[in-house]
Structure formats: structure tokens, C-alpha cells
Amino acid sequence: MTTASELRDAALREFASAGYLGTSIQAIADRAGVSKASVLYHYTSKEALLDAALSPAIEQIGAILPRTVQLSGTDEERRDFLVRFVDLLLEHRLAAQIFITQSGALIDVPVVARAQVLIREIAEARPQQTVDDQVRFAVALGGAAYLLAQAGSYGVQAAPDDTQLRDSLIRILGELLASVTPA
Amino acid sequence: MTTASELRDAALREFASAGYLGTSIQAIADRAGVSKASVLYHYTSKEALLDAALSPAIEQIGAILPRTVQLSGTDEERRDFLVRFVDLLLEHRLAAQIFITQSGALIDVPVVARAQVLIREIAEARPQQTVDDQVRFAVALGGAAYLLAQAGSYGVQAAPDDTQLRDSLIRILGELLASVTPA
DNA sequence: ACGCTAACTGACCGATCGGTCAAATCCTGA
DNA sequence: TCAGGATTTGACCGATCGGTCAGTTAGCGT
Fold first, then answer.
1. Gap from A60 CA to D5 C1', in Å?
2. Helices (H), A103-161
3. All residues at 6 or more sequence positions from B16 whose CB lies less than 8 Å from its CB, including other chains
4. Which of A21, A100, A169 sits opposite B21 (nearest CB)?
5. For chain B, what are the domain ranges?
6. Is there a contact between B105 and A19 if contact means CB atoms under 8 Å apart?
7. What does the pLDDT look like over A13-54, one tens digit per residue?
8. Rounded distance, CA A118 to CA A51, Å?
9. Does position A149 have pLDDT exceeding 90, yes or no?
10. Which of A49, A57, B147, B160 is close enough to A95 for a disulfide, judged by CB 3.0 to 4.6 Å?
């Protein structure tokens, strides 16, 4: 683990739990065991640190964007897309949590704006949506992210293990999106 | 409109769009057309202002808490509960948005802690839940709140009108929660 | 052993924020 | 008209934050 990657990881956790505005550079430095000045040596600014923490998740989200059409396909195609999507959410659950909870307050930050554009592109990838379709999709996306955020912030509370959560989430999102109007 | 209620309304909007930490007392004062000192005359602190802005929503949420058992009842009972719940979300959509997006970063604020306890009580009101049940409920709750938050932050974009959104949301949440295991 | 560069740090700066306070102004009832 | 409380305000304070900078330490090729 290089210092830079440790800082990126510490920032990701801190931003997710306390919020970007609620996180001081000093707090990130403390978590990583270095000085505040050292943080700003590796990253030119607090915003650059947010960018570094979120970019990996954004790139992978962008990579599966072309597959969104599978949602209007057969049951197998839809399930295939959902498996990739849920796995991606699980892998980058902290980044997803930051997106969902703070994208509104951080629209002026470039990396967040890019993520918002991506999410909107995913939502609008399928043509001639009914209101029901939009609601199904928004509930599925927001609900999944909220679930993972809550599961992550369960302190003592017993949270279901990831594999169980994954299976259940894939199944239920599948049901939720099964009745979208075909393209 | 008294000055106090105008300030409470301005604070609610500002907290929802920019976040509690991202909102300065000066910004609330500007929105309401008064001075910063005047804000602190009507409310003893920024935290008191948040409390005043969120309390009405919390009280109504607490009022429907006993009806949560209807989720395990007949289809009509469940629909009846969902109608009340969705209407409550629509009426207090800004407060709901603040809860969902910032409760994690604001757990040390008493009013937010109270809200979190309420939500947890609602989620745990039904006995012997399976993982699927938990997932369904979390997706429904978080998804609905996310949808309203997004619909509220649509600037130019055409957002579906409230009645259409209400009908669709009630129907789809009903489907989502229809297959929870009976008590 | 030397020199060079990357890594790191404490001290400091300007700006902003939440909150206080004394004074000014407004409003109302007698 | 006027006394007195309610309301409003500008000036100010201490604390915190993001960021800068000069200087120190650590590692490494020669």
C-alpha cells in the first residue's frame, strides 16, 4: 500500500461516513497516520482527493453503460445486466453511497457532475418510457444504493452477509424491472 | 407568514439543496431577506433551525408508525398504509430528502437521531423478517425517497406531475411489498 | 561518502463560519 | 404622545478550515 492509495482509501471512508463537507483534511491525515501537509503533497487539494476516490467507480459505471439496453431484453439478458450492476454497487458501495447522498450538494465538483450525467444516461438509455418505468428505475437504483449505504453503516446491528444480500438484491430488482415496457 | 416560519421554510429548502453543512446562516438570511443576526434571534442556533425544519415531518411519521402492521395484512390494508405513507413523503419531500441523504453525517444532531430511530422502528415493526423482506423494505423506502429527491431537483427537466407520481409510486411499492412473508 | 530527489512536516495565512452583543428601530397599548 | 417590549441590525470575536511555504528527513544511485 502506497501512501497515496492509503490516503485515497481513508478519504473514501471519511467522505462516506461524515460527508465531503463534514470531513476535514486533518481527519483524513489522522486516519492515514500522516500530517495534513503530507495529504496536500500527494493530492493538490481536497477536491482532487474526492476525484481520486470516486473516479475508479465512475469509470466502471461508464463501462457497463452500453449494456443498459439489456434491461429491455429477455429475462436472461436483464438478469445478466443486474448481476454486473449489483456486483459493481457492492464493490464500490462507499462511492455509490457518496454519489447518492451527496451528489445534490456537490454538483459544482467536476467528478460528481460527471457521475450525475452517467446515471442520467443510464436512466434515459431506454426509449419512450412511461411514468411507471421511470418510477421503477428510480426506485430500483435509489433503493439499492440506500440499502447498501444502510448495510454499511450498521455498527453493531447484524447485517446480512454480502452474498445473501447480493442474491436477494438481484432477484428483487429483477422482479421490479421485469414489467418495464419493452422497447 | 411570520418571519420565523419564513426562516424555517428557507432553511428547509437550503438544507435540502446544499446540505446542512453546506448551508451558512447567511445564506438562509439572504433567502428570507433578513440579516444573519435576525436569524439567530428567532432560532438560538443553526441546529435549532434544523430541528424546527424537520420536526413537523418527524411527528407525522411517528403518528403512522402504529399502522405499519398493515403491511403484513390484506391487500387493501397494505394499500391503505402505502397511500398514507406516500402522501406523507410527498408533503414532506424536502424533509425526507434531508433524512435520507444526510442522516448518516448528522447522527449527532438530536432531531436526526430521533428520525433514524423512527425509521428503524418502522422497518423492524414486522416480526421474523427474511433477508428478502428486509431488502424489499429498504429498496422501497430508500427508492421512494430517492425518487422524490431527484424529482425535486429536476431543474429544467420535465418532471412528472405529483398526482401521476403518487399513483405510480403507490402501485409499484404495493407490488414490491406484496410478497413479504405474512406475520 | 556524497548528492539528489521524493516524501514529509510544523508553522503560518487568509477566509469563512457560528455565535454574541450593544445599539437602533418598530410596534402596540395606555 | 409616550413608555416598553419585540424585532432587527452591523460590528465584532474565537475557532476552524483549506491551502502555502520553507525547511527537514529518508531513500537511493554512483
1. 64
2. 110-123, 131-153
3. A104, B94, B95, B97, B98, B149, B152
4. A21
5. 53-178
6. yes
7. 999 999 999 999 999 999 999 999 999 999 999 999 999 999
8. 15
9. no
10. A57
B167: left (phi over 0), alpha (psi -120 to 50) or beta: alpha
- Closest-CA residue to B181 (of B126, B121, B139): B126
| pLDDT at position B160 over 80 | no
**Band of residue A182 on the pLDDT scale cut at 50, 70, 90:** low
Tally: H helices and E strands in chain B? 9, 0
Q: What's the Å distance between residue B43 CA and nucleotide D7 C1'? A: 13
Q: Which residue in the set A105, A141, A169 is minimally distant from B135, CB to CB? A: A169
- The pLDDT of residue A12 is above 90: yes
Distance (Å) from the alpha carbon of A3 to chain B's nearest alpha carbon: 26
CA B41 / C1′ D4 distance in Å: 19
Cell triple for A76:
436472461
Interface of A with B in 98-117 (CB under 8 A): 100-102, 104-105
b (16+ CB within 10 A) / e for A30-42 = ebbebeeeebeeb
How far away is chain A from the Cα of B110, in angstroms, using its nearest Cα?
A: 16
pLDDT (tens digit, 9 = 90+) per residue, A52-74?
999 999 999 999 988 888 878 88
**Nearest 10 degrees: Cα torsion B144, B149, B155, B156:** 0
pLDDT for A151 beyond 60:
yes
Tell me which chain B residues have a C-beta less than 8 angstroms from the C-beta of A136. 172
Q: Would you tell me how many other CB atoms lie within 10 Å of the CB of residue A179?
A: 12
CB proximity B44–strand C (7 Å threshold): yes
Instruction: Kindly identify which residue of chain A lies nearest to residue B23, measuring between CA atoms.
Output: A105
- At the top level of CATH, which class does the domain B53-178 belong to? mainly alpha
Cα nearest neighbour of A108 on chain B: B18
